[in-house]
Amino acid sequence: MGIDIKPSNLQNLLQQELTRKQFIQMLGVMVVSLLGFNNLISMLAKMNHSTNTKKVAASAKDGFGSSKFGI
Q1: What angle do CA 11, 13, 14 make, to 5 degrees?
Q2: Contact indicator for 62, 54 with CB cutoff of 8 Å
Q3: Residue ranges of the alpha helices (H) in 1-71?
Q4: Could you tell me the CA-to-CA distances from 2 to 5, 26, 42, 57 in Å, in that order?
Q5: Could you tell me the pTM of the whole model?
Q6: Domain map (residue ranges) of the chain
Q7: Distance CA 59, CA 66 (A)
């Protein structure tokens, strides 16, 4: 049911020389395969949503800025 990783295949993969671009691509594929595509998309959507939302201050009833002249 799972992927059968043979030690010889793993050793060949680790001995392979990679460029920086190939390494980043391989790392990205590994992260997506570990986390799952749907989980990755939902995590990115939550991060984007939390950084783009602006918090609006409630109207001040007491304190500085509550009167006509701001005092």
Answers
A1: 65
A2: no
A3: 7-15, 20-35, 37-52
A4: 9, 20, 25, 52
A5: 0.42
A6: 9-50
A7: 8
Residue 22 to residues 5, 7, 14, 68: CA-CA distances in angstroms? 21, 22, 13, 63
Q: What is the pLDDT of residues 46-67, one digit of tens each?
A: 887 655 555 545 555 666 666 6
Q: 44, 50 in Cβ contact below 8 A? A: no
Does residue 31 contact residue 37 with C-beta atoms inside 8 Å? Answer: no
Buried/exposed code over 39-67 (b: 16+ C-beta within 10 A; e: otherwise): eeeeeeeeeeeeeeeeeeeeeeeeeeeee
